[in-house]
């Protein structure tokens, strides 16, 4: 990761992701490329940020779990797949594309602490 932490950054440039279904729940894992990227994710990739990105698709709560030993965050999104699996008429009934969509988001400029 570069030292340009005061600039906007594409999430895909500092992390990898994977997503899938758990019934009507969506699970999105985001793994940072290194410890500096993980710290930025911890500060900026909040449950509220994820909920805003999927507004209208995720109808329930979004909960974030931190996994510092592997520089990762896991997001559990409730009521996210229109019933899930065989019950949904959505194109992506198993939520496999959500991680890719999240990785296309830009994280905001980091705030400097004076």
From TrEMBL:
Residues 10-106 form the AtuA-like ferredoxin-fold domain. Pfam families: AtuA_ferredoxin. It comes from the Archaea. This is AtuA-like ferredoxin-fold domain-containing protein. It comes from Halolamina pelagica.
């Amino acid at each position: 990761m570069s030292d340009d932490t005061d600039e906007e950054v594409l999430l895909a440039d500092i992390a990898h992701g994977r997503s899938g279904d758990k019934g009507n729940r969506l699970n999105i894992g985001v793994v940072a490329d290194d410890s500096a990227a993980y710290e930025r994710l911890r500060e900026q990739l909040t449950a509220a940020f994820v909920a805003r990105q999927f507004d209208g698709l995720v109808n329930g709560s979004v909960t974030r779990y931190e996994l510092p030993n592997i520089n990762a965050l896991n997001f559990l999104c409730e009521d996210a797949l229109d019933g899930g699996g065989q019950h949904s008429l959505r194109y992506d009934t198993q939520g496999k594309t959500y991680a890719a969509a999240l990785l296309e988001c830009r994280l905001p400029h980091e705030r400097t602490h004076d």
